[in-house]
């Protein structure tokens, strides 16, 4: 009974759900049926060895890659994220690793900069 009640509360707070995400590159299984839930207010750290598939999973959430299998839900609604613009329209931003960052900017400023590209204020 407790778990059922918790389940309802948690389901309401879930902002992003990734279910069974699988991504293959030639000769590489980068993501193997990954489940990931993000609830409002949470901060997650995705940890793992080099090449284990962290960036691939985030690139899928941000629409840079399409998953071979799996589903994504945003605020309980199944979504089809085909591009970074689709992701941004859903409120998903991405601060890229290393070379695409403005090093003097904060994380928030880098996110804001990415958003201005998508909205066409600054040409890419
Ligand atoms: N565009 C691509 N084409 C082919 N293989 C790719 C591509 N992107 C990623 N891979 C492969 O998928 C696997 C997962 O890579 P990914 O970059 O997601 O790992 P990572 O966990 O982010 O690694 P790191 O800690 O080095 O950033 C690696 O074997 C990588 O070589
Ligand atoms: Mg990476």
Supply the key terms:
single chain, 124 residues, alpha+beta, Rossmann fold, 2 domains, four-stranded antiparallel beta sheet, 4 helices, 27% strand, globular, disordered N terminus, binds adenosine-5'-triphosphate, binds magnesium ion
Are any ligands bound, and if so which?
A: adenosine-5'-triphosphate, magnesium ion
CATH level 1 class label of the largest domain: Alpha Beta
Write the element-wise H/E pattern from the N-terminal end onward. HEEHEEHH
Largest sheet: 4 strands, antiparallel
The CATH homologous superfamily of the largest domain is called P-loop containing nucleotide triphosphate hydrolases
Distance from N terminus to C terminus (CA atoms, Å) equals: 52 Å
**Shape, principal axes of CA atoms:** globular
Q: What CATH architecture label of the largest domain applies?
A: 3-Layer(aba) Sandwich
- How do the strands of the widest beta sheet line up side by side? 2-1-3-4
Strand content: 25-35%
Instruction: Name the structural class.
Output: alpha+beta
- Per DSSP E runs of 2 or more residues, the count of β-strands stands at 4
Determine the number of helices (DSSP H or I, runs of at least 4 residues).
4
How many discrete structural domains?
Answer: 2
The name CATH uses for the topology of the largest domain is Rossmann fold
Kindly report the average pLDDT value: 84
* Share of helix, binned: 25-40%
